[in-house]
Amino acid sequence: MAGPALRAEELAAKQLKLTIDLFMAKIRVFSTPFCPYCITLKQFLKERDVEFEEVDVSENKEALDEMVRKSGQMGVPVVEIDGEIVIGFDRERISRLLGIKD
Prior knowledge:
Shape: elongated
CATH architecture: 3-Layer(aba) Sandwich
CATH class: Alpha Beta
Number of strands: 4
Strand order of the largest sheet: 2-1-3-4
Largest sheet: 4 strands, mixed
Distance between the termini: 50 Å
Helix content: 40-55%
CATH superfamily: Glutaredoxin
CATH topology: Glutaredoxin
Strand content: 15-25%
Number of domains: 1
Radius of gyration: 18 Å
C-alpha cells in the first residue's frame, strides 16, 4: 500500500510546485547604479521582500541591447515582470502586477 500513498504524495508535491510557480513572478530590473529612480525602485521591492534579478546595463552591452529591444527605451529603470515591460518606476502598475497592496 506504500505505492499509492507515495504516488499521492508526489502528486501533492507537484501541485504545490505549480501553485508556488503561479505566485512567484520572474522579475528583472534593468538599471544603473547611479540612477536615483532605479535605487528607489529596488528599495521598494526589497522592502516588500520581492525577489528580483538586477541587470546593470551600464556594465553589460548585451543587457542594454536586450532592454532597448524589449522596451524601445534607452532610459532606466525598465522592469520586466513575467515578460510584461514597465518603463520607469511606475509604482501603481508594478504593485498591480505583483499583487502588492499599499
